[in-house]
Amino acid sequence: MKKIAVIGTGYVGLVSGTCFAESGNNVICCDVDDNKITQLSKGEMPIYEPGLEELVMKNTRENRLAFTTNIPQAISQADIVYIAVGTPMAVTGEADLMYVRQAAKTIGQNLNGYKIIVTKSTVPVGTGKLISAIIREQTKIPFDIVSNPEFLREGRAIEDSMNMERAVIGTASSKAFELIAELHKPFTSKIVKTTVETAELIKYAANAFLSTKISFINDIANICERVDADVTKVSEAIGLDSRIGGQFLQAGAGFGGSCFPKDTAALLHIAKDAGYDFKLIQAVMETNETQRLLMVEKLTSALGTLKGKTIAVLGLAFKPGTDDVRSSPALDIIPQLVDRGANVMAYDPVAIEEAKRRLGYKCTYTDDIYQAIEGTNACLILTDWEEVKQIDLAKVKGISRQPVIVDGRNLFEIEAMRQLGFTYLSVGRPAVHNKSIISKAI
Ligand SMILES: NC(=O)c1ccc[n+]([C@@H]2O[C@H](COP(=O)([O-])OP(=O)(O)OC[C@H]3O[C@@H](n4cnc5c(N)ncnc54)[C@H](O)[C@@H]3O)[C@@H](O)[C@H]2O)c1
Ligand SMILES: O=c1ccn([C@@H]2O[C@H](COP(=O)(O)OP(=O)(O)O[C@H]3O[C@H](CO)[C@@H](O)[C@H](O)[C@H]3O)[C@@H](O)[C@H]2O)c(=O)[nH]1
């Protein structure tokens, strides 16, 4: 059993702290956010993540997991201190290390004996050295630095954390390596031992590679539309080549979330600072931006104009299984629809509160999918929620003013949509036109 303090109780701190507790360690998760800690202490989850609440409750009941705003005390009682604070995108695109610096200073001020300081936040290469320097400014007590990046996906965070595909442990200290490797034994046998700098870069390389796959297939989808080909078949066929792999080849409205957009932008800066012009990642980011705009263009082409039209936007979260709307396509697209004169009815099963906080009242919100669709001129699908996949299409046709669907997640069969009489525009697949709608729209 190890005593672990996790600084930052956001998505990553909360999930990884809970999983460390579940594997038998004594974990205290701390945060500067009073509300979050009060909520957690009462057993209320600040985020929507399947399976998290049960695991948090179980581990708090069994006294392996606790929450506090008393960060100095948590640090002084721990053998291992994890930094899991946010590293948001600065206006210039690079990672903002403000919270990491603050956490490092607090650690330095409260070090009362040898401890292992581990970075779980996604941080630019060189941050391990920066953390070390900040702590040294505060104390002469020895410590070791480890980079142990996190690879969990929102919506499947518990599963990813309990069954890691690998753990990356970057450190110059063999003692620290042994301890952190032991901590990960319950989760994976695949441990990559490396330096702090290499571990820091591995995290960005992983996210950039996955983002590249998505932008690549979105570019292929856009070619498919011009040459009457079907991107879903292209994905299926190239994905069967084990050198390529079938995952992250779903064309759509582009990638969002708290990681890919910010981490690709940060990697561009890391490369630039190292004197390298990373053209590929720049293109990946640009393709992603235009992919979102394409959804607005498709709607406009289907309806003739958006002015005065009512659009049901189905899905606000950046992907299913989460209420996270950070950099979600919907948050970019809805303001553009409104700017073009459309009224928006926004549907999401769990992310409405988060969307309201960031978007304000640019649209009307509902968690009833049919209420969102009733009387609208078109539906725009942006999140592949099960509730959207399972929708009764005949009912949709009956209650909407015009049977028009722009599908940014390729959820439905082309032929079925043709037979139902929809105008159906998806991504990288043949368009289906209900002729009467086109003539009305024009
Ligand atoms: N969200 C993900 O799916 C995911 C996955 C892998 C890696 N990451 C990386 O992990 C890091 C954290 O991400 P997140 O989504 O959990 O962030 P978040 O913004 O949701 O949470 C960060 C938390 O840290 C707290 N905090 C900030 N400064 C603090 C301080 N000085 N002391 C104590 N608490 C402090 C904040 O109040 C907040 O609750 C980021 O670097 C992110 O890139 C995120
Ligand atoms: O084929 C695909 C796969 C994903 N997406 C989109 O890509 C985004 C990101 O999806 P996903 O990777 O599942 O979500 P995240 O929870 O952001 O997880 C990513 O970012 C995390 C934070 O760094 C990492 O830890 C994870 O390994 C990495 O997958 C979402 O908008 C998806 O809709 C696609 O458009 N097509």
Automatic annotation (TrEMBL):
UniProt-listed GO biological process terms: polysaccharide biosynthetic process; UDP-glucuronate biosynthetic process
All copies of domain UDP-glucose/GDP-mannose dehydrogenase C-terminal, residue ranges: 312-414
Reaction(s) catalysed (UniProt annotation): UDP-alpha-D-glucose + 2 NAD(+) + H2O = UDP-alpha-D-glucuronate + 2 NADH + 3 H(+)
Keywords associated with the record: NAD, Oxidoreductase
Pathway noted in the entry: Nucleotide-sugar biosynthesis; UDP-alpha-D-glucuronate biosynthesis; UDP-alpha-D-glucuronate from UDP-alpha-D-glucose: step 1/1
Name under which the protein is recorded: UDP-glucose 6-dehydrogenase
Family: Belongs to the UDP-glucose/GDP-mannose dehydrogenase family.
